[in-house]
């Protein structure tokens, strides 16, 4: 009588979701290895499960980009009425599995990952939750975006790209402990930064009447950098856009620092002096310290200073 399979052994079996075409599987495997090597600069000897997840995510994303561009071209040509959904929260969750289902790639990806000797569930678990909200409202906004894309509506989501998500929960001695959810610490393969559309946004201040009209003065300025994320519809080749803005609160300090650099660059003598000083300082606090620390902690010896004679002294 055969021994019952463990959960781990069952995961290694071929996918039962459906049989994928051989051509699709071969193409996905090639794209997976290409991203592992050229996007992540890793090979199978050093790659981690997270690296494999990123390789798979970038492979699936390749199938999104063409549809995404064609969708935006269609909206531009036909000029339909557009929906702009503005929300402080977008609880999008994990994107990989949802995208594979919507693009009808789930079966082929399952088979490709299996043939590569990897576990699909383990790779899916490596993705960070994009928990940009407190629950209900953010999840409702995410469902609206998915639904509008599936219905073929020309819709856009606008919100804030929070640096931290809702929270991570742990149970310590029977009590709930909340920790910051640093969901971006490993990067996000689904978003595309758009620095060319960065905009200053003004807060506070006052209005001032002048001969040229009313002006808004004494404001606090922040910089908003947009990041675009594709939102695919369910098997209809429609991919809408969610645009989240990353906020830089020290915009004015950045401008002042940049002005100072520009002025310094106009003085070649002073600029050269600062560059040499910078390089000399880097050497002192990086290479010298590293070598000394390595000698003490790894070799267990104290470094000693040796005077090296100048070339002309050696000839004497």
UniProtKB/TrEMBL annotation:
GO terms for molecular function: glycogen phosphorylase activity; pyridoxal phosphate binding. It catalyses: [(1->4)-alpha-D-glucosyl](n) + phosphate = [(1->4)-alpha-D-glucosyl](n-1) + alpha-D-glucose 1-phosphate. Allosteric enzyme that catalyzes the rate-limiting step in glycogen catabolism, the phosphorolytic cleavage of glycogen to produce glucose-1-phosphate, and plays a central role in maintaining cellular and organismal glucose homeostasis. Its EC number is 2.4.1.1. Signal peptide: none annotated. InterPro entries: Glyco_trans_35. One of its GO terms (biological process) is glycogen catabolic process. One of its GO terms (cellular component) is cytoplasm. Keywords: Carbohydrate metabolism, Glycosyltransferase, Phosphoprotein, Pyridoxal phosphate, Transferase. Its cofactor is pyridoxal 5'-phosphate. SUPFAM superfamilies: UDP-Glycosyltransferase/glycogen phosphorylase (SSF53756). Belongs to the glycogen phosphorylase family. It holds the Pfam family Phosphorylase. This is Alpha-1,4 glucan phosphorylase. It comes from Oncorhynchus mykiss. Gene3D superfamilies: Glycogen Phosphorylase B (3.40.50.2000). It is an enzyme of class 2 (transferase).
């Amino acid at each position: 009588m055969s021994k019952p399979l463990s959960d781990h052994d069952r995961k290694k079996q071929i996918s039962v979701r459906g049989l994928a075409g051989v051509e699709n599987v071969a193409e996905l495997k090639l794209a997976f290895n290409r991203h592992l090597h050229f996007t992540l600069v890793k090979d199978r000897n050093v790659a981690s499960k997270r690296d494999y997840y990123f390789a798979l995510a970038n492979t699936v994303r390749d199938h999104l980009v063409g549809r995404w561009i064609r969708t935006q071209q269609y909206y531009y040509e036909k000029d339909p009425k557009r929906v702009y959904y503005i929300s402080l929260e977008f609880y999008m969750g994990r994107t990989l599995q949802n995208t594979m289902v919507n693009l009808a790639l789930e079966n082929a990806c399952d088979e490709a990952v299996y043939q590569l000797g990897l576990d699909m569930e383990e790779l899916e678990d490596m993705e960070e939750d994009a928990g940009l909200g407190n629950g209900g409202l953010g999840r409702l906004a995410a469902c609206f975006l998915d639904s509008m894309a599936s219905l073929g509506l020309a819709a856009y989501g606008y919100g804030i790209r929070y640096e931290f998500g809702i929270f991570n929960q742990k149970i310590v001695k029977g009590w709930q402990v909340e920790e910051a959810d640093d969901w971006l610490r490993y990067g996000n393969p689904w978003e595309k930064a758009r620095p060319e559309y960065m905009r200053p946004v003004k807060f506070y201040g006052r209005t001032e009447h002048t001969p040229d009209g009313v002006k808004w003065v004494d404001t606090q300025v922040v910089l908003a950098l947009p990041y675009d994320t594709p939102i695919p519809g369910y098997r209809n080749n429609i991919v809408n856009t969610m645009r989240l803005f990353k906020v830089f609160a020290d915009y004015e300090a950045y401008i002042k620092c940049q002005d100072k650099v520009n002025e310094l660059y106009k003085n070649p003598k002073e600029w050269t002096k600062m560059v040499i000083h910078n390089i000399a300082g880097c050497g002192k606090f990086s290479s010298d310290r590293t070598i000394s620390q390595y000698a003490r902690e790894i070799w267990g010896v104290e470094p000693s200073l040796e005077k090296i004679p100048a070339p002309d002294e050696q000839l004497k």
